[in-house]
Recover the amino acids of this structure.
């Protein structure tokens, strides 16, 4: 079944530069999926990443490494809404710290 699906995808996209599009965050799940699609299935993957001001340098570097190896084309878009929301969250938390929202801050940056 897997081979039939891959062949169908390739046939549908034979006149295109890419077989599929992947939203790529640089996290474990999307990194695995990018490797799997390109290496295991042999698909030509185009990737899109939504970046923001709070993205760690290490994550940006990992994204660059992975797209250099596995992506046929990559588009990086700055997420202005997340920049605003992140800044608002940090300012609110600094002005009125709340234990309940601390986990959101920590899981959001993944550090």
């Amino acid at each position: 079944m897997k081979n039939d699906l891959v062949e169908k995808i390739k046939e549908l996209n034979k006149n295109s530069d890419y077989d599929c599009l992947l939203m790529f965050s640089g996290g474990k799940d999307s990194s695995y999926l990018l490797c799997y699609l390109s290496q295991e299935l042999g698909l030509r993957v185009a990737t899109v990443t939504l970046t923001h001001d709070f993205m760690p340098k290490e994550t940006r570097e990992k994204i660059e490494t992975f797209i250099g190896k596995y992506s046929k084309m990559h588009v990086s878009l700055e997420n202005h809404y997340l920049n605003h929301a992140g800044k608002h969250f940090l300012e609110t938390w600094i002005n009125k710290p709340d234990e309940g929202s601390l986990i959101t801050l920590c899981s959001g940056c993944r550090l």
